[in-house]
Give the backbone structure.
Amino acid sequence: MPHKIEIPPEIIARVVKRCGTPHPFAALDPARTALLVVDMQNGYMNAEVGHSCVPTAPDIVPVINGLAQALRQAGGTVYWIQNASDEKSRIEWSVLEEQASPERRAARIRSISPGTKGHEFWPDLDIRAEDEIVPKYRYSCFIRGASDLEQRLRARGIDTVLITGTLTNVCCESTARDAMMLNFRTIMVSDGNAAMTDAEHNASLINFYLFFGDVQSAAQIEAALQAGKPAKVA
């Protein structure tokens, strides 16, 4: 079942007081906008091979596919973020390993090591040749040692990122917070993220919305992309 999204009116009122509007990034320039799809892999979605499966993650696949297509058609770019674990990352991020039991560490290695079934993207995702695939070795895409995503976005003149994927409150929120602090206009897609529970999902969206950036539905974003498309030359 998709998440039941609940952002209380008092939260929206606080955002309006801070920003002067409920949606500070309501207007989008598609050519300067990127969709980031975080960790939609078998390791987080397929119980047969995964170590940390999110029951709601398959439900957001149609939303992500639709938003990806809308952005491509409007002139934007789609980035599929592929989380991984290798020996180098386990040494450099040893504190994560220390927090896990031996069984959990082994399961994670089996699940998202490059070349494994768990590392592969969920098969129903509509990944196109013109999209980009970005390996990631931390929760956030943007922290040092995680990926080269920031450099890729800067090279294309991207200033706005749309965050989708799983988990809402871990890799997606970590990526979104860091994107904002690197000066990207950042929107978390309310119905394009998945967490273990509705409570965790909503708490993450609310906290991000209050302090870091915008939260919009895929339908709102698609309408903004359509409005921001350059006019066709007759």
Summary: The two ends are 45 Å apart (CA to CA). Residues 61-74 form the longest helix (14 residues). The mean pLDDT is 94. The longest strand covers residues 185-194.
